[in-house]
Give the backbone structure.
Amino acid sequence: MDPRTNPFSPGAGVRPAQLAGREGLIETCEIAMDRVLGGLHATDIIMTGLRGVGKTVLLNHLATLAKAHGIEVVKFEVPDARGGHLIPAMVIALGAVLKRLDRLKRAGAGLRLAAAALQNFAAVFRVKYEGFSLGAEPARGAADSGDLETDLPELLMPVARAAGHRQSAIVLMIDEVQYLTREELSALARACHEAAQQGVPFLFIGAGLPQIAALTGEAKSYAERLFLYPEIGALAPDAACQALRAPARAQGADFTDEALERILAETECYPYFLQTWGKFAWDTAERSPITADDIAAAGPAIIAHLDQNFFRVRFDRCTGLEQQYLRAMSELGPGPHRTGDIAAALATTSQRLAPVRRSLISSGMIHAPRYGETGFTVPLFDGFMKRMLPALEPYKPKRRSGK
Ligand SMILES: Nc1ncnc2c1ncn2[C@@H]1O[C@H](COP(=O)(O)OP(=O)(O)O)[C@@H](O)[C@H]1O
Ligand SMILES: [Mg+2]
């Protein structure tokens, strides 16, 4: 069918034609936003889920909603686990927020305090900041200790208060939160904690891989109670059908029920895969409705495409040993698996594999949903690993050359 009207859109963060099956979570977040706008407390939220389930898309959608409610959104993504991203991202985003707040209602003592805190914060952490200033002499003592856990709350509180004075609120949204360092996570948890205690209009909505719940708990013991951790996973079958059918119908086309069933089985209802199968099915089918035969015919090309473009990039970033570890996991099925069972599949011990496992966790390839368990962060990765490496080899780290 005509690719010009193909409504499916696989791609990181690309808004789907139909954002299916997330109504409940969207409502939870909207209620939280309305509560902070109304001067009430709302529990901060960290959405967790595997790659490709739609976390980024949801966060973007929530940001749009927040802005429509008159909320100031501070939003950024942490690109990797190297650390040091939080401070500059925060300075840039908060500078923009202060500018907008100043336009809503000029100056005022509250805004001057916030602007001074931002200047101090930027100076003490050596971030170049030539943005918003009210000509205020930086007041000593606010957000200028050089200790992030002290300074981040001291920066965010006056900004949230200044927003509150303008009948607005601050929503801080951070994508890929699992990449924050422990220090950054601690500071963030502390800021959320302070905001709740001081009753300022501030809400945090984060998104990240499932290990984030454990990471925040390790960073701050009270973080377990501080955040809600809604899990985003595969869509329910009804929602998955809707994700395919509604966009097709909007273009005057359709799928047969059998075609939908087949796609649901192949994708296990994971959003990224639904978009990919939908897109290819559309492009290869001669006419509407798209049938199960069309899906069967397109299948091998779709799998090859996913292998090359979605799975392969992640595989290629791994060392040989890491690949072996992932292969052993796939031998056991989709997972999560007991870490000891993975070692057994490689005929070695968990202890010897601990460094490989750690590096795979820090690069975001695998995660530990519970103590002693290990799972893929990418859905359907087990099938890919078996296609890439048909045979499972026993664990054989290279011997050091005898120099
Ligand atoms: N609720 C949904 N319904 C249909 N498609 C979705 C949904 N959520 C996400 N998608 C699609 O899935 C893909 C991955 O979304 P993304 O937000 O990048 O996932 P994540 O951030 O969890 O890795 C995108 O192509 C997006 O259009
Ligand atoms: Mg994402």
